[in-house]
């Protein structure tokens, strides 16, 4: 159809139907420039056509809300012609790139501009200062660079200003005779500028008594100079975060005036002078002054006078003398005073709070402890004289750092019994299988430290549900899970939102739910502080409609063609139904046409893997007897079997209800059958018959690396053995990246997925989440986030763009595990952050003796510093700054040669030759092994592995 004929039909249509929307052309331009727009974006009239995510008043577009639908493309300049637009919410679409239109200031009626969690770049246009009706400006979690436009100071109606987590540089702008500044924003409640590269002094002019700001979040920048005393004049403040900058000088004494401040973060700066007196900050819940250079002094008395204080962080602040017993009488949850010069006898007294969970006094000079009445929660006195006395170190719990499992929380069922769900469905708290809308809540300044307490989250859940349902959104229930604190001391929570009346959301439901969170309609309790929500792209939309290439002329069909059209449709429908039936049969059994004597049909393209019958496997496992059951997991049971050749195998048998589709199963075994390397677990075969899905692997007798590090197997791993294991695992991952065909990104590298054979050779296992990379995917591929908390690459988590460097990050965490034998996350503390905060490159072993695994701490650790440097290079925030796996292999080889080891030498003949008699350890495939199927996407309900 040529262009002139289309124009003729369009004019004819306009005359017939009297459609006169002024904004149609702009929406058509958006549809043509964006990919993955809603499927009902058809026809010529978005308003009368009720396009998903588009709200109109008459024929004018007033709102565009398209959160988390995998939009890709750029924001075209045509959008500035939507002169009636009031709301633009494109949050959580990391495929949106490019710069903002310079003429964005033409949207004079815009009140909400929400672009959080996208990938926009370039400078923030100065014209944004012309949006005088703007109340919400959320540009956080993008890649904006350049300076903060001073023109933002013109936005006198602004309530929420969030520019955090970008690459902004320069100083904080304040007003002058010729230019506005942020000090004009007297009605703005939120200044969120954290995690940028802002520099220079914090202008004293920025703060004045007329401001009504609640949250000042400037953390993790490059700000210098002193804290301006004018900050003490802003009596409305509730949260102040100035941590992780380069601030110097004394803390202004008038901060004591801020009686409404609940959270005060001043840590990781160069502050000097006397300790501030904060007696007047009577609302203070959380204070962190750690890692500054205050004048040495005794513990200030005001610590114990604050009635609401729950968390006191004073690590490495110059405190000295004895700890007063009165300190522990407040309602404290966490006391961190490690790295100071405290001495004498520790006496917690008889009235310490029931809430007191952690008292960390590492690296002081305490030589005694009175424990009456007995304190049973976490007390850490490692690296104090009391723990250097003969017999005390071994007998007292407080002289070691206990290894605990990750803090887990997940919303439980609401008085119902959950049943297994198929595919990517998840059982909701109301025990209904559905496809939830998932994302992550980041609370940037919580006033509590005990994140393991379930009652915290049970108070949050009903408020979230009420926020959705009171806005008439189709939400049945919500689930929270996996609370952690990240490197920035944010509380991170996974959120799953389940639809009501159906098993999936449509585009309208996702847009509405996303807007309630991105627009701050949901108000959490004050103890949680400010938050942001980053949603994950939703892949399970309901109510899709096929678009038409000639949608612009819908309704202009001549009546005489209707009958012919119906006949054609009837014929096509019959043909399509036949093909659908054939396709369903093929999906149910993709191997149905497999004749082992031929090379056509549905034969899987296998290399070395065999198709076993169900009867064969029943025989090899003695009818899947209990004695041969060696483990279980979310996927099903694992059995040991013996083939007629005598080969021991591990048979992973999926339970009913957890099996994947036939085509997906076929694709998985085709992928696994191509993987052949001595440091990768081999697939021996599979079974797909009688409703069964089974994978048969080589049997690995010594279980997981995690089991050995925890002492479960009884195998002692010294420094040299750990180097060999690191090298073997690295070679396995390098093979997947560089030599497998097609290349494979594992996506779930962790110590649970590295197995040790009879000679303690490392083998990479579990490809349930692996992603093959075709030529078109080189560089990165956008995908649902999958992985395990603690090992997950934060860049992949935020952008959903997967690269080989995501595996490198996870491998770096494994290297830190080899050094510490700790879980990646313990008591809410992240191992990566612990290393970065503790290490001092000017000292022996980088000052890490306190967190090194005691099994190796007494050995000569040749090459230790280079190993640490390698691990930390792997866990750098930006993937581009991480080494490749081939570089990782080369560096581990260099460390081994430095330690006098031959990287290519064989390992011990058997694990028994290396203290490998495993203390009754007979079942290596436990819930923590490679056979705990990790098929649910992160961050939905990740079951403990």
From TrEMBL:
Signal peptide coordinates: 1-21
Compartments, record wording: Membrane
Transmembrane helix among keywords: yes
Ranges for domain Protein kinase: 624-896
Stored CDD domains: STKc_IRAK
Bias type Polar residues, positions: 587-602
Keyword Repeat attached: yes
Region Disordered, annotated ranges: 585-605
Sorted UniProt keywords: ATP-binding, Glycoprotein, Kinase, Leucine-rich repeat, Membrane, Nucleotide-binding, Receptor, Repeat, Serine/threonine-protein kinase, Signal, Transferase, Transmembrane, Transmembrane helix
Cited Pfam families: LRR_14, LRRNT_2, PK_Tyr_Ser-Thr
Designated name of the protein: non-specific serine/threonine protein kinase
Lineage: Eukaryota, Viridiplantae, Streptophyta, Embryophyta, Tracheophyta
